[in-house]
Amino acid sequence: MEAARERPGGTRLFLRSIDVEGAGFEYAMFLNASERRVVCLFQPGPYLEGPPGVAHGGSIATIIDSTVGSCALFVAGRVMTAKLSIDYLAPVPLRSVVLVESRLERVEGRKVFLSGQVRSVDGGTVHAEAT
């Protein structure tokens, strides 16, 4: 983890607030501009534990919001989450790698509607779905 994660004014992106490498939100996001979607590889570290051995639901909501928000930012520019609905389907084991995927569904005026999904890298388990 690089040391210069701070922004001007000493602030930090919430996901990058843990200084211990591998302990929190470890992720990389990839934009597919032509398909208007963002894919994120996410590995929850031990500081994100909820039930024993499993990522806390709030950390799953956070990575979904960040991935969906990144997609919305690309599509519409500066945005804020107005409503986030998540169906948790299966727990995410700590230190596992999952795919978080977001795609544009539609735009209505100033409103941008997106969907998201968290699934195992082999596609066999859907951990969460979001709109």
UniProtKB/TrEMBL annotation:
The enzyme's E.C. designation: 3.1.2.2
Region forming the signal peptide: none
Bilayer topology annotation: Peripheral membrane protein
Biological process according to GO: apoptotic process; fatty acid metabolic process
InterPro entries xref list: HotDog_dom_sf (IPR029069), THEM4/THEM5_acyl-CoA_thioest (IPR052365), Thioestr_dom (IPR006683)
Residue span, Thioesterase domain: 53-126
Reactions listed under catalytic activity: dodecanoyl-CoA + H2O = dodecanoate + CoA + H(+); (5Z,8Z,11Z,14Z)-eicosatetraenoyl-CoA + H2O = (5Z,8Z,11Z,14Z)-eicosatetraenoate + CoA + H(+); decanoyl-CoA + H2O = decanoate + CoA + H(+); tetradecanoyl-CoA + H2O = tetradecanoate + CoA + H(+)
UniProt GO cellular component terms: mitochondrial inner membrane; mitochondrial intermembrane space; ruffle membrane
Subcellular location: Cell projection, Ruffle membrane; Cytoplasm; Mitochondrion inner membrane; Mitochondrion intermembrane space
GO function terms (MF aspect): hydrolase activity
Alphabetized UniProt keyword annotations: Apoptosis, Cell membrane, Cell projection, Cytoplasm, Fatty acid metabolism, Hydrolase, Lipid metabolism, Membrane, Mitochondrion, Mitochondrion inner membrane, Transit peptide
Stated family: Belongs to the THEM4/THEM5 thioesterase family.
Name under which the protein is recorded: Acyl-coenzyme A thioesterase THEM4
UniProt organism field: Crypturellus soui
Gene name in the database record: Them4
